UniProtKB/TrEMBL annotation:
The keyword Membrane does not apply. Residues 15-308 form the NADP-dependent oxidoreductase domain. This is Predicted oxidoreductase. Pfam families: Aldo_ket_red. GO terms for cellular component: cytoplasm.
Length: 317
């Protein structure tokens, strides 16, 4: 698979999001999840994305086990800052320097490695100056524990403030056919600074594949609480997946592959490297996703796909 540069870090042009292997989308099988990570490596997908919040550390342990014996084939991206340990599912964002450093050591232990290739602030802590949080990350780089720094879900102003402390390799944001927020919130700053965009949920949390029936989601599936998956909204949004499916049929591809190909194709327009990281816990989907970057979309295809975001019913959260 083609390589992309994120702040001097060479990664695969498509990554693998591992969150669903441990949380959010219902039950997952450990053995198959491990097999998915290893199959991704076989297919040339080397950017493996996790976080200490996914499954309260479970996901990092899983990724570490999956990469045992193959660590040098992968670039591990993990995150810190989201604290779900306060009980009752309550999220607290904590990015004080002491916690960041302790969290990095804990992540290294769970992952079974001596370095994190790309370490993100999962969210910005409003109670801690961003410059202090990035300063702590910079110290981890100086210590050799982290190779490159990233931020998740930030504005252009926040990116510039962070970059003034230490170079930022990538911003991770939700970005897809039906979520275009980064184009107006952070893309200009990323282009000016040479920062890449890592696109999470590039398949619209599975909806854009046309294979997800919103009304049939399992009780433990967090998508049941999202506005776009509510009954009326999902029915209206189905036309977006159908539009991708029509193009897919003409290209000998699937709707999901078209959705991923569209995300990757935005790099020249945005002027930044764009790396989609579709998540899956199934072998069949990791193989399909890895083939998506081979789909070539015409200018006519792109014009149709570009207009779909304006049809979305329901807020992102």
């Amino acid at each position: 698979m083609e390589q992309v540069e994120l702040g001097g870090l060479a990664v695969s042009a498509e990554g693998l999001g591992c969150m669903g292997m441990s949380s959010v989308y219902g039950a997952a099988d450990w053995d198959e999840s491990v097999a998915v990570v290893r199959r991704a490596l076989d297919l040339g997908v080397t950017l493996i994305d996790t976080a200490d919040a996914y499954g309260l550390g479970h996901n990092e342990v899983l990724v570490g086990r999956a990469l045992a014996g193959r660590r040098d084939e992968a670039q591990i991206a993990t995150k810190t800052g989201m604290d779900f340990t306060t009980g009752r599912g309550r999220l607290v964002v904590r990015n004080d320097p002491e916690r960041i450093k302790a969290a990095a050591d804990a992540s290294l232990l769970r992952l079974g490695t001596d370095r994190i290739d790309l370490y993100y602030l999962h969210r910005v802590d409003p109670e801690v100056p961003l410059e202090e949080s990035v300063g702590a990350l910079a110290e981890l780089v100086a210590e050799g524990k982290v190779r490159a720094i990233g931020l998740s879900e930030v504005t252009g102003e926040q990116l510039r403030a962070a970059y003034a402390v230490h170079p930022i390799a990538a911003v991770q944001s939700e970005y897809s056919l039906w979520t275009r927020d980064p184009e107006t919130t952070v893309a200009d700053a990323a282009r000016e600074l040479g920062v890449g965009l890592v696109a999470y949920s590039p398949l619209g949390r599975g909806f854009l594949t046309g294979t997800v029936e919103a009304g049939a989601l399992a009780a433990g599936d967090a998508r049941r609480r999202l506005a776009r998956f509510a009954e009326d909204a999902a029915a209206a949004n189905r036309s977006i997946a159908q539009a991708a499916a029509r193009i897919a049929e003409a290209r000998g591809a699937t709707a999901g592959q078209v959705a991923l190909a569209w995300v990757a194709a935005q790099a020249p327009r945005l002027g930044v490297p764009v790396v989609p990281i579709p998540g899956t816990k199934r072998l069949r989907w990791v193989e399909e996703n890895a083939a998506a970057l081979g789909v070539r979309l015409t200018d006519e295809d792109l014009a149709v796909l570009d207009g779909l975001a304006g049809q979305v019913v329901g807020a992102r959260y």
